[in-house]
Amino acid sequence: MFSSEKRIKDTFYKRLETDNDLDPLMDTIGDASYVLLGEASHGTHEYYTWRAKITKRLILEKGFSFIAVEGDWPDCYRINKWLKDPNDTTAVKDVLSQFNRWPTWMWANWEIAALAGWLKDHNSSLPEEKKIGFYGLDVYSLWDSMEIMVNYLEKEDPKTAKLAKNAFKCFEPFKERDSYASVFSGARPGCRDEVIRLLQEVRENTHKYSGEKEADLNAEINSLVMANAEKYYRAMAGFGEDSWNVRDRHMVETLNSLMKYHGPHAKVIIWEHNTHVGDARATNMAEDGLVNVGQLVREQHPGEEVFIAGFGSYEGSVIAGDYWGSPMKIMKVPPAIKSSVEYKLHKEYGENALIIFRENEDLQQHFAETTGHRAIGVVYHPERERGNYVPSRMPQRYDAFLYLEETTALHPLKIEPGGIGIPDTYPFGI
To answer: What start and end residues bound the annotated signal peptide (predicted)?
Structure first.
C-alpha cells in the first residue's frame, strides 16, 4: 500500500519538537471534557515536560478546570491548597517534599515543581471558582486519610468524628504490618462496614463543612479512600476482587466525585501511567479480566468526550528502583525490542513524532496488528526487558501517541551530593 519509507513518514508522522507541533493534537482533542495523558514510566523527564506543555495549552486554550493524577489524595491536596492560596509563600520544593511514600520521585521532582510554579502564578489572577486544582486519585493513603478525617471532624462535626474514630480503631491494629501489599490478611470482619457508614454520614453533612475552602470535598474523598482501601488491601491479600480493578475503579469513583464537585462544565486532565489510561480492552489485560481508568471513562462517556494520549520512547534512561522501597537510581533504558511498536517507530521515522489515530483510517490500518508496547514500572530490571511489553492494538488503546526517540531520567527533589542536579525546566521553563 505504501511504496516507500518517505510515503510512510509523510502520511503518518508529524514532527514533534516544539509547542507549536502540538497544534494538530489540540485540534483533534476538540471539545473533549476528559483528556487522559499517559507515560511509559514514572521516571522519565520528557514524559513530564511534554505532558506539562499539553496541560498548559488545555488550560489556556480550552478552559480545563483541574488536573487529576496517579497520586495520593492527602499529598496532592496539599499542593492543591498551595496552588490556590496567594498568601501561602512556602517554597514549592518544600511543598513537594511532603511526598514521603515511596516512590517519592514520582511527584516530588523538579519537573512538577516547574508546572506547580506556573499553575500558582496562573491562579493568582483568577477568581476562586476559576482556579486550577490538582488532586490525587489513588487509594494508597489509608493511614493519612484516617488521621485527616479524625482531626478535621473533631473540630467540624463531633458526631461524625465518633464514626471516624471507630473506623480508625478497626484498622489500627494492622498499621504496624503495613507493607503496602497485604495489610489486612487477618483484619476483623466489618471494617469496611464502619467506613461505609462514615462515608454516608460525611456525604449527608458536607454542607456543614465550611471551616476551609473545599473542606467538604476533602472530607468526602478521604472517607472514600478509607472505604476503598480496605477492599483494596483485602484483594491484595487474596480475600476479594482483584486489587488492580479495585484500585482503578476507586480512581474513577474519585474522578466522578471531582467532576460533580466542579460542576456541569468541568473539564479534567488526567496524568497516569499508560497502563491506567490506555484502554485495557485493546490489550491482553482484558483476557485476565482487568479493567482500567481509560476503559471505564470511555464506557461512561462514549463518543468524543474522552481523548486518550499515550507516550513511549525507543531508548534512554529512567529513575526507578531495584525492588519496592529501594533507593532510587538512574537506569539505562535499552533499545526497544524488535517486535515492539517503539522499534517500528524508530525504524520508520527515527525522530520524535506525534501520531494521531483518531479519524485516520490509513494510520489505524498501518498499526492494526497487535504489537508489544513497553511499560516500565517504579521497579525496573532492564536485563529482563522482554517482560516489560504489553501486547496492544495501538489505535484502539489510544486516540494519539507521542513517540520520543530518546528520553532521559527524571530529576527528583531529593538529590544526593554529586547527583543529577536541577533541570533547566525550573522554575517556569516547561
So the answer is: none
